[in-house]
Amino acid sequence: MSAAHRPVNRPLSPHLQIYKPQLTSVLSILHRATGIALSVGVLYLVAWVVFASASASTYASFQGFNASILGRICLGGWLFCLYYHLANGIRHLFWDAGYGFDLKDAYRSGWLVVAVSLIATALSWVVGLRLV
Amino acid sequence: MSDLRSPLARARGLGSAHDGLHHWWAQRVTAVALVPLVVWFAVSLVMLSGAEYGAVRAWISSSLAMVLLTLTIVVGLHHAQLGMQVVIEDYVARDGLKLACIVAMRFLAVVAGLGAIVAILRIGFGG
Ligand code: HEM
């Protein structure tokens, strides 16, 4: 068998279910979950400017939902996703540049991301959305 | 570590999708651009919360907001489209369905982007 036809010895991906959740793995899947939530949110943002370009009464019906308690919870949740994905995204960019791979650093930056996103979310909720 | 690629793939040097490096790089460049944009947008959103029709339109029609809001939406949609492609590739196993999902998702991103641009210009330049 020539070298070109020899099967490649690839590793198998691990089965996630057998692992105890760890900070690093939880933050990793949260990055994906928040990325998906943000994508939906950007479409909502588009709807917002489209409604704002329509008549005042059309906008009012849209704004009615935004101002409702459910609307404010959605917005507040979206802002948390944004702060988390932003902070963790910067963490990703440092990794891409080759920094912060030590286990100790990965945990330290991980907790920093958690702290920053929770503080920014709390601030937005109290200052702007008056959710609390 | 064992080599993940076959000798032929290594010689070609293109990766499995043949344009992975460009995709990876575009995801990073849009991420860097989004850092200041989303900070500006989040602060604006929190300050605008509860604002009425007139106030929202006045805010959107300032030159600064027109430029930054358009950038936030267009760059955000591009980054979202690149990211969601990877998510779809990971979870949709059947080839045809996978392709259909990615194409539909891209169409949606383009329509949304153009819709937002038209709306912002209409608010800014009256109509
Ligand atoms: C409009 C806001 C945003 C949306 C809709 C969005 C959406 C997404 C999506 C869907 C993914 C793919 C997730 C995955 O494959 O697991 C992703 C990945 C990523 N995002 Fe965002 N994102 C946004 C803002 C940002 C910001 C502000 C940053 C700042 C640094 C960022 C950094 C990243 C990075 C580095 C990745 C790649 C992660 C990886 O390779 O696993 N994103 N984003």
List the helices and strands and how they pair.
The complex is a heterodimer of chains A (132) and B (127).
Chain A: H1 23-52, H2 56-67, H3 69-96, H4 103-129
Helix pairs in contact in A: 1-3, 2-3, 3-4
Chain B: H1 7-12, H2 20-48, H3 53-60, H4 63-91, H5 95-125
Helix pairs in contact in B: 2-4, 4-5
Structure report:
The complex is a heterodimer of chains A (132) and B (127). Chain A has four helices and no strands. Chain A is elongated and about 70 Å long. The longest helix of chain A is centred in the N-terminal third of the chain and has 30 residues, at 23-52. In chain A, helix 1 (23-52) packs across helix 3 (69-96) and helix 2 (56-67) crosses helix 3. Helices cover 73% and strands 0% of the residues of chain A. With 127 residues, chain B is an all-alpha fold. Chain B has a single domain (20-124), classed as Fumarate reductase/succinate dehydrogenase, transmembrane subunit (3 helical TM bundles of succinate and fumarate reductases, Up-down Bundle), CATH 1.20.1300. Chain B is 81% helix and 0% strand. Chain B is built from five helices and no strands. The radius of gyration of chain B is 19 Å and the shape is elongated. Chain B starts with 6 loop residues before the first helix and ends with a helix. Chain A binds chain B through residues 3-4, 8-11, 32, 35-36, 38-39, 42-43, 45-46, 49-50, 52-53, 56, 59-60, 63, 67, 72, 75, 79, 82-83, 86, 89-90, 92-93, 96, 120, 124, 127-130, and chain B through 2-8, 28, 31-32, 34-35, 38-39, 42, 45-47, 49-50, 52-54, 56-57, 60, 69, 73, 76-77, 80, 83-84, 87, 108, 112-113, 115-116, 118-120, 122-123. The complex binds protoporphyrin IX containing FE. Protoporphyrin IX containing FE sits between chains A (31-32, 35-36, 38-39, 42, 85-86, 89-90, 92-93) and B (27, 31, 34-35, 38, 76, 79-80, 83-84, 86-87).
